[in-house]
Amino acid sequence: MDLFLQQTVNAFALGGTYALLALGLAVVFSIMGLINFAHGELMTIAGYVLMYCGLAGLPFLLSVPLAISASMVAAVLMERIAFRPVRNSSGATMLVTSFAVAMILQVLFQNLISTRSQPVLLPQLLSDSVTIGGLVIGVNKIAAIVSTLVMLVVLDRFMKHQKTGIAMRAAAEDFGVARLMGIRANTVIAGAFALSGLLAGVAAVLWVSQRASVDPLMGFMPVLKAFIAAILGGLGSLRGAVAGGFLLGFIEIYLAAFLPHEFQEFREPIGLGIVVLVLLFRPNGLIPSAALKAIKV
């Protein structure tokens, strides 16, 4: 029983990171119809800012907001420089653009910083653990769970009660009608990218706090998993992205913990098989987007 509870805590921590990344992808997709595969590079940028802040001797509590801010600024610049000129092009053009941006940033990281993994200085507190009812839980796991819950609550209130959030929800429902009602496309789309950068930055801090390192391809695999989570939850659905992220985290952790040893090498295919099985029964995802078939601009 203790092992099950321990792995459940791990699943919540991993699923929370996937949920934040999937949410960042879903926010942009719901408005633009774009899957931004350069989203992982926003994670990497935040990771490198954490690394350089540590080398400069800045306190971790100051490094975290700087890293998240860098991710947000990079996301807005990415939209302005790379995606705005091709916004009215086909979905395939925007998809290729996102791949091109991702590859350019990866090459820049490799040539300007290092091709190897670099250590990130973290406070000793994140390496400690606490005992709760017989369970030994890492502080970094607790921080990941708490941070995820706080972000989800804040984001929910932002989308429901703030003017910009309401405009994003309206644009996600029907961008054409939203623009006729006076909502400015550039403002909403830039806001969506800034929000996705915020979520990527927070996810990067959580990811780095458990790995204690950063490399040029750090964001590739987490964002690929987040893309799967977004599809699992319902592409374009914000609540679905959260549900899909947590479900994928639980699938991965439980398979790693409870799958017999002789089947561990097949863990990834089995996990994807479970995802496909879920989609067979819920082809539009766990919580489908109401605007799944809406026309995007």
From TrEMBL:
A Pfam cross-reference name: BPD_transp_2
Keyword Methyltransferase tagged: no
Transmembrane segments: 12-37, 49-78, 90-109, 129-155, 188-210, 216-235, 242-259, 271-292
Coiled-coil parts of chain: none
Top-level taxon: Bacteria
Keyword tags: Amino-acid transport, Cell inner membrane, Cell membrane, Membrane, Transmembrane, Transmembrane helix, Transport
Keyword NAD in annotation: no
Main location: membrane
Membrane topology listed for this record: Multi-pass membrane protein
Localization terms from the record: Cell membrane
Protein family according to the UniProt entry: Belongs to the binding-protein-dependent transport system permease family. LivHM subfamily.
Name by which UniProt lists this protein: Branched-chain amino acid ABC transporter permease
Protein source organism: Pseudohalocynthiibacter aestuariivivens
